[in-house]
Amino acid sequence: MLITGFPGTAKTTLSGAFAEAACRRGERTMFVSFDSDSSEVIRNLTSVRIRLDPYVRSGCLRMISARTITGSAESLLVRIKTFAEQHRARCLVIDPVSALSKAGNESTAHGVAERLIDWAKAEGITLVCTSLIDELSGHTNGSGPLHISTLADTWIHLNYLVQAGERNRGMSIIKSRGTAHSNQVRELILSDAGVTLADIYTAGGEVLMGTLRWEKEGTERVAKEVAEVEGKLRRVSLDAEEAVLEVRAKSLQTELKAKQVEKTLLARTTESRKGELSRRRARMRELRGADGGPAGRKLK
To answer: Which of 109, 288, 296, 297 has the most CB atoms in a 10 Å sphere around its CB?
Structure first.
């Protein structure tokens, strides 16, 4: 695996995260640093919550300061292989591999880098190499003269993305043989909470990072909160209107029942009156019929 980038883009940090994860899994690891002393690497990585010193003390991790090793690229390769075999390393970090080009001509350095990769694959060692991009020329020392990018199975590139006068770290995967990978540029955030790979965030077709992203997220968060408050107020209003309608509905139901009862009583009263009137008429007919009956004729 090759990690390239400008100075300060977190190449060593990612390498340290890899080494810590390997040691956490119990895999013996060796970290070869050409730029800094081992104690400096351990101290600097602690600032982003990558702690290698416990694994150094336990013997799972071996830190080597290769800047004190002199000699040709060939001799460097021999020393690295010897140290790795002594440590029985299953994971190996070379930071940066482009330092090999300083110990010999380009063709020799390329041959050494090629043999290093072939040896690691043959031994079943996971190899992580970093390579520095010259900020002035824009060339990668490791993937230029050494052509490491053509030899690596996976190539991760780190760069700076400048937006609104602010510089943020971006990470992308250039290639990864035999595996599917993202084509997006993700923001790499380093803080005392650790190393974070932020999800892609777009607005208006543009990828936002850093302060611009923070401001946009803040604006959207406020808009969301306002929408939630408005939604709650609307729900309260609808609940109140619903309560009023329920009261009105109950009132109308009560009124309807009263009208139905009144209607029933009116019908009963009407029937009762009709019956009474019918009985009175029958009685009157009986009484009138009595005047014209046999008793009346006798009186005459």
So the answer is: 109
